[in-house]
Amino acid sequence: MKKIILIIGLLVMSCSNNPDYQNNLMLAKKWVQAFETSNLDLWKEVVSEELVDVAPMYGMGQVDYKTSLGVAEFYVQNYTNVKFENQVWLPGIDTLTMKPDGSVRAYGTWTGTSKSTGRNFSLNSYHNFDFKDGKISSTGEYFDATGMVNSVGPAQRNVVVATAKVSKKNIDKFQELMDSDGGLSVTRNYDGCSHLEVFYNEESSTYFIIEYWESYEKYEAYLDWRFNKDPNKFTDKVWPYVIGGQKGFAAYFNNTKYKFF
């Protein structure tokens, strides 16, 4: 009990010796409120255009104001009933002087619902906020963003597994075509394709393209475009490198008994 009283006393002293903390805390809470109320104008109100943000998405790292705003728009557009629960707000310190510096730290649990699938998410997170000229100048968001997106994904995914028989002597040229401007980047950006993966199996001389689509109707529309309407006639460039030409290509997309583990 004495330790708890001491900690509370130290926090009270830190806040009283940290005149900017209460104002900055209000700004940080407005940042949270922007997501809870889907109010991007409120987000813009409290965030500096010189923002430096450590984004939660895998591989993004440190991003600027424009990119951070794009991430905020993604959450607002795709999730509803968003709440930041079990909130714990703490004053930050200067790591050199070990004195309060006006920064704000927050722990809590984000909850909400995917607009597209109706599935719920709940995940713990940590945030840090620094301030300049009355706005949030830098922030870090630390939680499993990729896991959150996966957790609310569709109960059944529309998966297409395409295979092409390609000899080892032709695989480099084949991959070069896949990586070209008219190749798999076009497939990935076609309406309805959420993402795709590829790999080559040397033992079977088989190239695998694993695609994820919003619906098989959109995949069929893509196939029609790719084979009949593509101005670059990409498939005509591909067949010479495939064993058996077009007959060496196959696509499988029957999701009977589909399960996601």
Question: What order do the helices and strands come in, and which of them pair?
Answer:
Layout: H1 2-16, H2 21-36, H3 40-46, E1 47-54, E2 62-63, H4 65-78, E3 79-93, E4 100-114, E5 120-132, E6 135-142, H5 145-151, E7 158-165, H6 171-179, H7 184-189, E8 193-201, E9 206-213, H8 216-229, H9 234-238, E10 249-252
Parallel strand pairs: 1-6
Antiparallel strand pairs: 1-2, 3-4, 4-5, 5-6, 7-9, 7-10, 8-9
Helix pairs in contact: 2-3
Walk me through the structure:
There is one protein chain. 36% of the residues lie in helices and 34% in strands. The chain folds into two domains: 2-151, Nuclear Transport Factor 2, Chain: A; 158-252, Alpha-Beta Plaits (2-Layer Sandwich), CATH 3.30.70. The protein starts with a helix and ends in a 9-residue tail after the last strand. Helix 2 packs antiparallel against helix 3 (40-46). With 261 residues, it is of the alpha+beta class.
SS element count, helices: 9
Number of strands: 10
| N-end to C-end Cα span | 45 Å
Percentage of β-strand residues: 25-35%
Shape: elongated
Q: Could you tell me the radius of gyration in angstroms? A: 25 Å
Number of domains: 2
CATH class of the largest domain: Alpha Beta
